[in-house]
Design a protein that fits this description.
Blueprint lengths: L1 E5 L9 H11 L7 H14 L1 E8 L2 E10 L9 E8 L8 H12 L4 E3 L8 H6 L14
Parallel strand pairs: 4-5
Antiparallel strand pairs: 1-2, 2-3, 3-4
Length: 140
C-alpha cells in the first residue's frame, strides 16, 4: 500500500470524480451527498487543507479529507472532514496508516465530527481524540 498526500499545489484533479465516488460509497450512512463531498475537496484547493490517499496498485483503498479552518485562536486549525476505507478492506490497517499520515501532515489541533454510533470512534480514540464538548446545532 502507498500513502500519498496532496495540497492545493499538487491536488490530483484527474482523480477528483473517483475520490468523490469512493467517499460517497464507502462512508455509507455516515456520509454526505456528492455535492457536499465535492465542496470539501474544493476547499482544499481554494482555502487550504490536505487530501490523503491510500492506494494499492493505483486503486483507492482509503481517503482522508482535512480542511484548514483558519480559526486557530478559538477552534482547532484543522477539521478532519472525511476518513473512509474500502468496505471490503476494513480492519486491515488502512485507517491506521491514513491517521498516522494525517497526524504527520497537519500542524496544530484537529477537530472531527462523528456520529455517536460510528464504529470508527475506536480508531480516533486510539490516536488520542477525546470528546470534551457536546455539539449542538440549530438547523435552519
Amino acid at each position: 500500500m502507498t500513502i500519498k498526500t496532496y495540497q492545493s499545489y499538487n491536488f490530483p484533479f484527474e482523480l477528483k470524480k473517483e475520490i468523490v465516488d469512493f467517499l460517497f460509497t464507502h462512508l455509507e450512512q455516515f456520509g454526505d451527498s456528492k455535492e457536499v463531498i465535492t465542496k470539501a475537496l474544493n476547499y482544499i484547493v481554494d482555502k487550504g487543507g490536505h487530501l490523503v490517499l491510500c492506494l494499492e496498485k493505483e486503486e483507492i483503498t482509503g481517503v482522508a479529507v482535512i480542511n484548514h479552518t483558519h480559526m486557530d485562536s478559538y477552534i482547532p486549525e484543522n477539521i478532519l472532514v472525511y476518513l473512509a476505507t474500502d468496505l471490503n478492506r476494513r480492519r486491515t490497517g488502512i485507517g491506521t496508516l491514513i491517521m498516522k499520515e494525517v497526524l504527520d501532515v497537519c500542524r496544530g489541533n484537529i477537530l472531527l465530527r462523528i456520529d455517536a454510533h460510528n464504529p470508527a470512534i475506536k480508531l480516533y480514540e486510539k490516536f488520542g481524540f477525546t470528546n470534551p464538548y457536546l455539539e449542538m446545532v440549530l438547523k435552519r
